[in-house]
Design goal:
- The complex is a heterodimer of chains A (about 325) and B (about 280).
- By secondary structure, chain A is of the alpha/beta class.
- In chain A, about 30% of the residues lie in helices and about 20% in strands.
- In chain A, helix 7 runs parallel beside helix 8 (about 250-255).
- With about 280 residues, chain B is mostly beta strands.
- In chain B, about 5% of the residues lie in helices and about 65% in strands.
- In chain B, strand 11 and strand 12 (about 245-255) form a beta hairpin.
- The chains are: A alpha/beta (about 325), B mainly beta (about 280).
- The interface between A and B is large, with 57 and 52 residues.
């Protein structure tokens, strides 16, 4: 009996061991703390303050007075949304159960594609689907292949790319259309380019945030395309079509394509998104994400505000109205 | 999968053979010897990873442990390893879940420095190497959803033992029928204080830079020394007539990593119930 009593008392005592020895006090969940927490997280880790010349403290001063102790969740969300949009970055989001903030990077330039025109007049009804790619032969003399790739989220296999290159081996060139491609998996950039490059090619260098200072980065981490041994050797010219809706992984692809000899970029500047977005949570449970890395071309250029095309082409209203894609037509001309 | 099943079958056979062989043990002092401890554990875990959230995730983990050890009149030596799986959660605007798989491992060497009343009480001290590695998956953290971390600590440890014996009357203890006779028990409490604490986990940016097409969850992990870790355990041993023993352990393990910006805070309350199978 004595043993059991002592054991029970000891166990009870230990079960209430003081966690506060290790754990800090919980962060309060109120509008002011949530605002402060989000601001501080961005301040410590966001990677483009210097590049975009953003005074984050000034932005805090602008939005902090709008925070009230008694404001509703929706009101708080709107203030935080507005503050984050000062970063003008499509990789910045705030997510609550009732709203998701975003930055409309694709509205920074003209809409450079009309999907209906592409489907009706270029892909037509007899287009082929290979993995995530839709493709067909285009142009008056049918000497150019057109491949539409609208999302990097699909799984690309080397076999898909090999098939395309082999199938169109007698063409004078190939159009690879990534306009309005909002990104997805960066791994697909390499799955595609490893089938295209003829030698190991440095595509870009990436730098990861390593401290709270605006220029505290570690790196570089070099990204290479390395030719696959079993690739179909396609040495003809490739036109990659881009626009403001080309973002994130698709923008990485455009940046990488600049380093490949037989690729030319045609269209409008991309939407950027060359920073890897993280993820995290606020004291109230809302989720945020923002860029915590930056990516530079091998020459050291930062194209976070958009990878520029080699040939600037804008889709004209007149062309669109008569079922012509100005950008594709310019690409066909380039590949003849 | 087949090999795992074979392994479990062989282990079970070994366990049964060992238990039945000891039915008529002639050992006179059950309190000392070599043993294999097979145990089930229940762990209430609290965790807060400031790299991704200021919220404390709490939940139960279930698992098992195996320990090989030697308890002698002068030395205690043991190594153990275990696995726990479970889910923690926090409720705010919604309930957010975090699944984790946890590996525990420890090695302890203690020497007796003091005793009284012919070993009824003794105090032992020595070194304890305590490890904890975990994989956590928290979908709410988006690209930071998956993390691997490992906490390894060299402790100075002290253990106080109180050995008791009493005349057992027929009855039940912990749902086990007891025969009448002399029984040995031991209560011990052990405090481990850190000499060197190390944490291997995501560094400043927290996530891997996967822009090179290679998503490697370990790539941005770095080793840091410092922080704080404490471990306190209490054990109750109940020796059976065949020389085996039942052991009930309560363990409190808490740690705070050194890295201020991505600080990890962890607390474990573990209940472990095991059978110590005598090996000599």
């Amino acid at each position: 009996m004595k043993f059991r009593t002592i054991f029970s008392c000891t166990a009870l005592l230990l079960l209430f061991s003081c966690e506060t020895l290790i754990f800090e006090q919980e962060v309060a969940d109120n509008p002011r703390e949530n605002f402060e927490y989000l601001w501080q997280q961005c301040n410590d880790k966001y990677s483009f303050f210097a590049y975009k010349n953003i005074d984050w403290s000034a932005i805090r001063s602008k939005y902090e007075p709008q925070i009230k102790d008694k404001m509703t969740s929706d009101e708080l969300f709107k203030v935080m949304f507005a503050m984050l949009n000062e970063l003008k970055d499509g990789h910045v989001n705030l997510i609550s159960p009732f709203r998701r903030s975003r930055f409309d990077f694709d509205l920074l330039g003209p809409e450079n594609i009309d999907i209906r025109v592409v489907r009706e007049h270029y892909l037509k009804s007899d287009y082929i689907i290979t993995g995530p790619f839709e493709h067909n032969v285009v142009g008056v003399d049918k000497k150019v292949a057109y491949i539409r790739y609208d999302s990097f989220e699909g799984t690309v296999s080397p076999a898909h790319v090999n098939f395309l290159l082999s199938y169109y081996r007698n063409m004078s060139g190939l159009i690879f259309d990534i306009r309005q491609n909002g990104g997805g998996s960066a791994a697909n950039v390499f799955k595609i380019l490893n089938q295209i490059v003829s030698k190991k090619t440095l595509l870009y260098n990436s730098y990861l945030k390593s401290g709270p200072g605006p220029e505290d980065f570690e790196g570089p981490q070099a990204a290479y395309a390395d030719p696959n041994e079993d690739r179909f050797k396609f040495n003809k010219k490739i036109a990659v079509l881009i626009d403001r809706g080309t973002f994130s992984a698709a923008s990485f692809f455009a940046l990488a394509a600049r380093e490949v000899d037989n690729i030319v970029l045609i269209g409008d500047r991309t939407g950027g998104g060359l920073g890897i977005p993280n993820g995290g949570q606020l004291p109230n449970g809302w989720t945020y994400r923002f860029s915590i890395s930056r990516t530079l071309s091998p020459a050291g250029e930062n194209f976070e505000n958009g990878v520029p095309p080699d040939i600037q082409v804008v889709l004209t209203k007149a062309d669109r109205d008569r079922g012509v894609d100005t950008v594709i037509e310019r690409a066909i001309q380039e590949l003849k | 999968m087949k090999s795992v099943s074979y392994g479990i079958a062989i282990f079970s056979f070994f366990l049964l053979a060992r238990l039945s062989a000891q039915e008529k043990s002639t050992q006179t002092d059950f309190r000392y010897g070599k043993y294999l401890n097979v145990a089930a554990l229940l762990d209430y875990q609290s965790s807060r990873d400031f790299g991704v959230s200021p919220l404390v995730y709490r939940g139960f983990h279930y698992g098992g442990m195996v320990e090989l050890g030697f308890e002698g009149p002068r030395w205690d030596i043991s190594v153990d390893g275990g696995l726990g799986v479970g889910e923690s959660s926090v409720s705010k605007v919604a309930t957010f879940n975090s699944e984790s798989t946890v590996f525990y491992y420890n090695a302890r060497v203690l020497r007796k420095f003091w005793d009284k009343e012919d070993g009824k009480f003794d105090f032992r001290a020595g070194l304890h190497l305590g490890g904890y590695s975990a994989q956590r998956v928290t979908p709410a953290f988006l690209n930071a959803a998956l993390v691997w971390e490992s906490i390894n600590t060299l402790f100075a440890t002290g253990k106080f033992n109180w050995r008791i014996r009493h005349e057992q009357s027929a009855g039940k203890f912990l749902f086990i029928r007891q025969r009448q006779g002399l029984r040995h028990m031991k209560l011990s409490t052990q405090l481990s204080l850190p000499l060197l604490n190390s944490v291997w986990r995501p560094d400043y940016a927290y996530i891997d830079d996967f822009s090179d097409g290679d998503a490697d969850v370990f790539a941005n992990n770095k080793l840091n020394f410092g922080g704080l870790r404490l471990q306190w355990r209490s054990d109750a041993y109940y020796y059976l007539l065949n020389g085996n023993a039942l052991r009930l352990t309560y363990l409190w393990d808490a740690q705070r990593s050194a890295n201020a910006i991505n600080r990890l805070e962890l607390g474990h309350h573990q209940m472990v119930l095991g059978i110590m199978i005598r090996l000599n």
